[in-house]
What we know:
Layout lengths: L9 H30 L3 H21 L2 H11 L7 H10 L2 H13 L3 H63 L1
Helix pairs in contact: 1-4, 1-5, 1-6, 2-6, 5-6
Amino acid sequence: xxxxxxxxxxxxxxxxxxxxxxxxxxxxxxxxxxxxxxxxxxxxxxxxxxxxxxxxxxxxxxxxxxxxxxxxxxxxxxxxxxxxxxxxxxxxxxxxxxxxxxxxxxxxxxxxxxxxxxxxxxxxxxxxxxxxxxxxxxxxxxxxxxxxxxxxxxxxxxxxxxxxxxxxxxxxxxx
Length: 175
């Protein structure tokens, strides 16, 4: 739904979103601990902030009605709109959960072999995500507009719940 009206650019947007997510995860794998230490950010604070963001995205998806989507389509279909980096690359693909997981796993890596395995796992996940994004238009055509709205609402609910869980995990860690 984020690329509605951009049918000719979907492949490029999917590739760009996947590359952005890979870069974001690589940066946090290599320097995340230093970035957090420099700014005094804790993992629970990152989880809570990311959870609030996820919850907000999920709730906005749930609140959208079909007529609002149609009105927004005309405004959002201008050529300068590019959802590939934000919100697709981050926070949807490389979100707080993925970044936190990468940082924890890097911290637990005992040697270069473990770090290499983590890099391969990140790359494999990004490639799988890219394949799903490339297959999405065919799936959307099969389920139709009504099916897409239903899936969008279900995913909005799941996104909101994931966000709430991130907040709960962050609060539980602090408490």
